[in-house]
């Protein structure tokens, strides 16, 4: 197989080998491979002005103290690093496009010079063309060195800034979802042990309908918020993973004439490749769809219950209806508990595999 030194060349070499990077169309068609939405909250995190527990509710402050203490990223502003990565990628593209145009002119002049030799053109014309070819060659050499320098800057940003920030983010995700797992387990236990008989004996009247309507509205907001978060989470990781895959020479099976899937471990890739490869594949196996469906199903049951309650003239709820509600809540919190457990274990697993890849990469490079 190919060695890691061949596969993980600087970015500009991969682009040059493609021969079509600068000919895909106008600059407006360049795909921004790393995209993110910068909200006010993300900007405030970069300003390093953390919130204080005094600003929070007393009951909530104890839970969130650990997160408040590390509200600012120790490894620096993630948004700023992505900004600079994109700027250097764009500069690399523009430099490459100029170098490709220069290379086409150089190739034409080389062909012209060869034809002049073959046709015994006058020495004056040959010398004139030779001078142009030498000048173009010098400019190409300088352009290649510039591309190489930019590529090394991108690699340094990737390994010394982006990777530590992602590892810190993974640590925060582990803690956040571990806390959510505990909360969902508590809620599931409370719902499962609730006494429906006590609820049936409680006085019920018209105000009962409004809380039910409010609950349906909150369930809709919860569903949309969770699905949007999961979607943004997946797009963020997939965007980084896709960008990183474009920075390497993909393995090629010459016998079958097709590209192969890059194996970061087998080809001894830098740890960042293992990190994003494992993270991206891990997200695909999360029970996200089942979790969101449980919320949607519960909201549908609540809407049905609300319509029946109104059609029956606001009569007290039957025990069977409340039992359905209780079962729906228990199912939802069970799915949320399993989802949060998977979400908290995934970052930890990715961190461990990245550390193992870092050690293997260091040994491989030293050997």
TrEMBL record:
<feature type="domain" description="DUF632">
    <location>
        <begin position="25"/>
        <end position="303"/>
    </location>
</feature>
<dbReference type="InterPro" id="IPR006867">
    <property type="entry name" value="DUF632"/>
</dbReference>
<protein>
    <recommendedName>
        <fullName>DUF632 domain-containing protein</fullName>
    </recommendedName>
</protein>
<dbReference type="Pfam" id="PF04782">
    <property type="entry name" value="DUF632"/>
</dbReference>
